[in-house]
Amino acid sequence: MEIRQMIYFKELAACLSLPAAAQALYITPQALSKSMRNLAQEFNTEIFYREHGKLCLTTFGQALLKEITVLLDQVSATEERLNNMASQENSHLRVACSHGILQGSFYAVFDDFKHQHPEIEIEFLELPDIFAEQMVEQEDCDLGLSINLPNKPEFFETTRLQHYQLCAVVHPQHPLAKQKITTLKDCAQYPLITKNRIFKIWQTVEQCAMKQHLRLSYALTSPNEIAWKQLVQDNQGVGIGTTYYLNPNQPEELPAIPFAEPELTWDICLIRRKDHYCSRSCDLLIQALKEAQDPDIQ
Q1: Domains in the chain and their CATH numbers?
Q2: Which is deepest, 53, 162, 193, 215, by most CB within 10 Å?
Q3: Residue 209: what pLDDT?
Q4: If we measure between CA atoms, which residue out of 122, 147, 239 comes closest to residue 191?
Q5: For residue range 170-190, what is the model confidence (pLDDT) as tens digits?
């Protein structure tokens, strides 16, 4: 039984008229009649009969219609999936990036990739950490650059690319400013200035505080970086930042003191949903990003 025969049969079963079905299929009634005879011979049973000159389905024909309808729906769904895969080969990629990643060294990675592969168009979506993960999980993006391990690791293939530590950012006159390294316990004496719960910085700090049985107070929990910096400059608390943005060749306006706790990390991870189709363009970008991996992590 061929797909073409299935389509012919389904149309004739719907019309119950050879001329009408043949017209809808753009074939002759003779060609349609021959195809249906061949189909009946294949199963060695009748699929249509006439009653008072009207075409009717036999009991087997009714059962065959149900099965063929399911099969044709599956064929249609398969074609749609394959078309989606083919469209992904057309060199358009969507990458979800946690907020701030493109401001650092990864900008150069993507810039080099664009020069090497000008035919590949990359659309970036810069989002809060949790939303970046969700975009990849929901397959709205091909890849993601997120912070630390995903909250639902079972859904992702994850590669840790670069390791950074969280740090306390303070006013030069703050009591912690002269320290070379600090702890969350030291910082818990002061109001904290950080992003909110849709960012991994907040989650990581809260989890560490729970582990140490620390009670934290916040002067600000917001993605508003201007307000964050202003409060630190006004010496209103301790900002929670990351060593990702530190430039060793340029003195910092505000002292940034790394945390001693090993779990207070800000690791950049490459994530891809495990069952998401990986096009050639996507695979090339994955390889380019993995080349930027810190060799100490491998």
Answers
A1: 3-83 (1.10.10.10), 92-162+267-291 (3.40.190.10), 166-258 (3.40.190.10)
A2: 193
A3: 97
A4: 239
A5: 999 999 999 999 999 999 999
CA pair distance 8, 11, nearest whole angstrom? 5
Residue 80 to residue 83: CA distance in whole angstroms: 5
The one-letter code for the residue type at 182 is: T
Structure confidence at residue 90 (pLDDT): 55
SS3 track for the chain = CCHHHHHHHHHHHHHCCHHHHHHHHCCCHHHHHHHHHHHHHHHCCCCEEEECCEEEECHHHHHHHHHHHHHHHHHHHHHHHHHHHHHHCCCEEEEEEECCHHHCCHHHHHHHHHHHCCCCEEEEEEECHHHHHHHHHCCCCCEEEEECCCCCHHHEEEEEEECCEEEEECCCCCCCCCCCCECHHHHCCCCEEECCCCCHHHHHHHHHHHHHCCCCCEEEECCCHHHHHHHHHCCCCEEEEEHHHCCCCCCCCCCEEEECCCCCECCEEEEEECCCCCCHHHHHHHHHHHHCCCCCCC
> What is the pLDDT confidence band of residue 50, given thresholds at 50, 70 and 90?
very high
Q: For the whole model, what pTM was predicted?
A: 0.68
Structural tokens at position 257: 């003191």
What is the pLDDT, as a whole number, of residue 79?
Answer: 85
Which residue, among 193, 171, 167, 163, has the nearest Cα to 182 in the 3D structure? 167
pLDDT in tens, 240-282: 999 887 765 555 689 999 999 999 999 999 999 998 888 888 9
